[in-house]
Structures are given as C-alpha cells and as structure tokens.
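Thread amino acids onto this structure.
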C-alpha cells in the first residue's frame, strides 16, 4: 500500500494529471457509487437556514460551494509528467456514522454535498489528488509544532479500515490541510468537515464510553480543538474553547498523565528488538499526545488570557523522546538511534517563551480596553490620561519592546507554510503592545524630558545608537545595552530594511499588517488585518493631534 513519506515535505503543487488519474481515483463519469445518493437528487442549501453563527460565516451555511468544489479535480492542482498518486482512495464515498439526532436539530446540516435530505451517512469528498494535497498540507503545517506522525509515514487507506475514530482522524487531517489553503472553497470544506467530525466524535464516544480513553479519539479531539480554536469563526472558536476542558478531563481519566516505567529499553538475549521498538513506539505516541495537549492548553490559555487547565503537578508522564528515535522507520534504525543518542530533548518554542514573558511585563486585557477607548473621561483621551494608562498596560518598557521585537523576528524567519496556527494572533498581540507604548508616549513634554536625559551633557551620549529590535538576536551587544541600561533608540523595520519609529502608532500598525500579509493567507489572519486597519482609522493622526487642544 503506498504511503505518504517524508518526501511530502518538499511538495510540488503541480501534483496530478487529468490524463493519468491516480490508482483508485473515481472516473469522471461516476458521480456517486451509492444508490441512495443516485436516487435522491442533491439539494442546494437554503440561503437563510438556521445556524449558530449570526452575522458571519459558519459551517452550517453556504455549503452550495461544495457542489462546485467537488468538481474541481484537475482545476485545483495541475499535472506533472512524473506524477503518480501516493494515496489510493476507494471508488465509493467514505462511510461515517453521522450523528443523526444532530441532523434533526440542525436541518441545514442535512443539505448540500453531505447527506441529501439527512437520509444518508455518506460524505462525498473531493478527488483523490485534492485529498492528497490536503494531507500533505496537514503534515507540512503541523509537524514542526505537534509531531504525531510516526516515521513521517502516513497511510490513510490503512487508517480508514481500522475504526470509526481512525476515519474521523483522516477527515480531520484533511480539514486541517484544507484550512491552510488560501481558497474559499477549501475553507468551506474545512469548516464543514470540522463540524461533521465534532458531532460524529461526540456520538461514537457517547455510544462507547471506553473510547474516551482511546488515543485515536483523543487525537481527533486535539485536531478538532486546533481547527476550531484557530478557525476564525466565532461559533467554532467558542465551542472548541468550551469543550477543551471535557477533552482534557478524558485525557486525565485515561491515565495518560500518570508516572510510567523507564523509557530506557532493557536489552537482553531473550528480548526481541522488534517487540521493544513497538512497545516504545506505543508509549511514545501516548506521551507525545499528552504533551501536544499541554502545548495546545498553554497556547489557548495564553491568547485568551485565562489559566491553563493542566498544571505542572499533574504531568508525571515522560517528556517526548528524541526525534531520531521517533523518525526511525524500523527496529534497526531505532536500535542504532538508541545506541548513539539517549535522552529526551525538549526544544523550547522560543516564540511562546517570549509571549509568556510578555505576560509578566504587560497587561494585555488592559491594552485591549485602551484600544477600544474604554474608561476615558468624556471628550476623549488626553495626553495625561494616555500617560496614566500606559503605566497600567506596560510595566517594563524596554523588556516588553525586546520580547515583541524577538517575536516578530522569529515569526519572519519561519517559512510561510510552516508557521504555527496561532502565528497571526501572536503578531496581533505584539503589534498592539508596541502600539500602546507609542500611544502612551505622545505627550510632547514626555519626549522633551527623554531628549534632555539623553543629551551629551547628561553623560548618556551612547543613546543615539539605533537598535532594530526585530532584526538582531538577543546576543547582539547593542540590544543587550538597550535592554539592561536603556542605551540606544529602539526601532522596528520594514521588509526592505528601512527603520520604523517606535513613536509612530500608525507606522507600527502598518508593520503588523505587513507581517501578516507576508505569511500564508488564513481566515483569522484576514480578520486580524481588518482589525488593525480599523484601529488605525479609529486612532487617526487627526484625532491624536486634537489631543493637544
């Protein structure tokens, strides 16, 4: 059975060729292999059906687009001369045990491309070449942050033959890969699959409570939480945040957080290397699942300004092992890795480190209240009020600017297709902190005092040096001098290297928008760009200039 191997990491987007369809791909004259679907014409979803995301897109409306997306096929990916399908998909729709009661509660979920009239438990998926592209997109976008694909080999055909939970996992992988594709149709597909899998996952766990401790089901829950929390759709984001506690409780009750015997294999003459490898692989998979949940819990808590559900005192299971061992494709490679490298390496996510550090020197909820102009006296904010609010928002200015600059530097250094799902939210966070610092320092008398303090007579002439905090590393001498003694002038930089003053609120917002523009297009990123642009208009230079009167 062909698999998706590590070569997928260097994917060429020219994947398929219409004249040479992949093995097992449906022929063009086969619309549906299920008689119920053939006898029941597909219905268009109503324009104004009931759904739970008022005023915005939700997975429960506009599913008509799927009817067109199903026909994309070779229009979505072009063909290369040496193309051959890595994935083999059956010539019939994938069968799922859809939560029928949920279909009754939400009549709009029974229309469109999914199950006509709510009478069928089949989901019609795009052509195999498109699914292959989405699966590669999933591996490429998440592997560096939530590594759960053993030996970089993924065989969806084998997975869907095992259990319903495994089938849901494949669909959620497709949904995650589609979410990373900057096409409206792909985003509709991702939203629809995410909601369908959420309902189905709830249903199968309700029917078989033992699945609440199943690693595959918990991995499905992890992928749904990631998809929903960073979807950009308020309804899905709210429900992902609301169900996070339930899934983490399932993880605890499954005993995966409990202490385990040593992960060091004990080799002797009677021990089979193959059995040792498979036992290690099983335990390592569970440990990685636990710490993936730890990362997601920490990230969501960080960006929602709430306390994590998991505490350090609850984590007794071993840290994930070396990547050399995890990427071994057989017992011989694994044994060589054990003999050459032993120990757990926990590469800290430096971006998250800087974001967590920012929480110690800033008050982000207060910063957002300032951006919304909450708590000001009638007549609008004055220089005096902005100065007071600055002290409540930013406790240590130099350290806050240092961490913000490093977040921007690190995010720019990551390839666009390998950025974490929360990267645009991180950009928004540091942009707003820097903007608040600039807004709070608009008082001309404050600037005059700063200039007097940096005059040659004051013995602080070194302050004239310029430090691009989003360009230099923490080891740079100029940055160290700025951080520890305040020497120098901190600036940001555009892509072309030109400096951006830290005293210009509008220019700082422009840098944030430009940074998001340079990354891969996502729905939540587009929303954040609009939010920053609206903020720039709300706090325009005309309004700021009126403060002096």
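Threaded sequence (549 positions):
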């Amino acid at each position: 059975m062909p698999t998706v191997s590590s070569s997928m990491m260097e994917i060429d987007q020219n994947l398929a060729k219409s004249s040479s369809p992949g093995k097992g791909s449906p022929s063009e004259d086969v619309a549906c292999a299920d008689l119920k679907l053939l006898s029941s014409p597909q219905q268009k979803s109503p324009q104004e059906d009931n759904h739970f995301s008022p005023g915005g897109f939700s997975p429960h409306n506009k599913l008509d687009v799927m009817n067109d997306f199903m026909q994309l096929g070779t229009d979505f990916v072009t063909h290369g001369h040496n193309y051959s399908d890595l994935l083999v998909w059956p010539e019939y729709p994938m069968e799922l045990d859809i939560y029928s009661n949920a279909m009754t509660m939400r009549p709009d979920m029974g229309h469109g491309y999914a199950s006509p009239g709510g009478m069928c438990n089949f989901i019609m998926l795009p052509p195999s070449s498109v699914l292959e592209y989405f699966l590669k997109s999933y591996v490429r976008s998440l592997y560096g942050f939530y590594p759960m694909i053993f030996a970089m080999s993924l065989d969806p055909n084998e997975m869907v033959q095992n259990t319903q939970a495994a089938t849901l996992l494949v669909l959620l992988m497709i949904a995650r890969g589609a979410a990373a594709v900057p096409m409206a149709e792909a985003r509709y597909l991702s939203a629809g699959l995410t909601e369908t899998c959420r309902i189905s996952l709830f249903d199968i766990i309700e029917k078989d409570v033992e699945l609440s401790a199943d690693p595959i089901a918990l991995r499905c829950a992890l992928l749904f939480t990631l998809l929903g929390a960073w979807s950009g759709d308020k309804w899905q984001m709210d429900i992902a945040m609301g169900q996070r506690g339930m899934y983490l409780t399932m993880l605890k009750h499954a005993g995966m957080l409990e202490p385990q015997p040593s992960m060091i294999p004990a080799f002797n003459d009677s021990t089979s290397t193959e059995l040792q490898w498979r036992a290690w692989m099983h335990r390592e998979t569970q440990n990685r699942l636990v710490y993936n949940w730890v990362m997601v819990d920490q990230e969501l808590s960080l960006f929602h300004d709430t306390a994590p559900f998991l505490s350090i005192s609850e984590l007794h299971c071993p840290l994930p092992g070396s990547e050399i061992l995890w990427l071994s494709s057989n017992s011989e490679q694994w044994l060589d890795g054990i003999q050459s490298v032993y120990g757990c390496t926990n590469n800290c996510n430096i971006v998250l480190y800087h974001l967590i550090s920012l929480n110690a020197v800033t008050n982000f909820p207060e910063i957002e209240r300032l951006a919304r102009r909450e708590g000001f006296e009638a007549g609008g904010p004055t220089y005096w009020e902005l100065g007071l609010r600055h002290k409540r928002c930013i406790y240590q200015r130099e350290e806050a600017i240092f961490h913000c600059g490093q977040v921007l530097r690190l995010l720019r250094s990551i390839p666009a297709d390998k950025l974490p799902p929360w990267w645009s939210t991180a950009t928004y966070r540091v942009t707003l902190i820097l903007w608040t610092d600039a807004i709070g320092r608009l008082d001309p008398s404050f600037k005059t005092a700063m200039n007097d303090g940096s005059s040659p007579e004051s013995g602080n002439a070194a302050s004239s040096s310029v430090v691009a905090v989003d360009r230099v590393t923490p080891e740079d001498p100029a940055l160290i001098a700025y951080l520890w003694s305040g020497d120098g002038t901190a600036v940001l930089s555009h892509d072309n290297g030109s400096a951006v003053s830290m005293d210009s609120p509008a220019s700082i917002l422009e840098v944030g928008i430009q940074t998001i523009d340079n990354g891969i297009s996502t729905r939540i990123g587009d929303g954040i760009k609009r939010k920053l642009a609206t903020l720039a208009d709300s706090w325009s230079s005309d309004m700021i200039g009126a403060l002096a009167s």
